[in-house]
Amino acid sequence: MKIISRSLAETEKFAQDFVAKLIPKKDEATLVALSGELGSGKTTFVQCVARTLGVQENITSPTFVIMKKFSIFNFQFSNLYHLDAYRLERGEELAKLGLEEIVAEPRNLIFLEWPENVKNVLPKDIPKISFEFIDENTRKIVL
Question: What is the pTM of this model?
């Protein structure tokens, strides 16, 4: 599936549709890989997903802290994790943050930016969304 988003409202709609189709896994967390260059819309998409899930906190890029956790209430997931592997060189660095325990909990929803930096520790079958900067207001989003 490919869309061209020409506004925040269109990205918000894509996020709402994406969340509506999410089905939690029975035995592990739902992990979604987000790829794209800086400024291509990855964090904006996570912000839109978070709003859709009722997160009230301000969502910012976790580039410097690597991982942020947000509680989700009254939904099929309990926690939203936003990870950014931009500054990581190996997947083993994610292991030190407790990724294995986070992935083991089926009610966790995890969005991982820059998955290519840690691909050696990621399952092969995770959903991937790629973002491409077209211009100031336009992004290509491919699921």
Answer: 0.93
**What is the tens place of the pLDDT at every residue in 39-90?**
999 999 999 999 999 998 989 888 888 999 999 986 789 999 999 999 998 8
| Whole-angstrom distance, CA of residue 72 vs CA of residue 45 | 17
By the 8 A CB rule, do 89 and 117 touch? Answer: yes
Helices (H), the chain: 8-21, 42-52, 92-95, 99-104
Task: List domains and CATH numbers for the chain.
Answer: 2-142 (3.40.50.300)
Give, as one character, the DSSP assignment of residue 124.
T
Compute the distance between CA of residue 92 and CA of residue 97 in angstroms, rounded to an integer. Answer: 9
- Closest listed residue to residue 141, CA positions, set 30, 48, 25, 28: 48
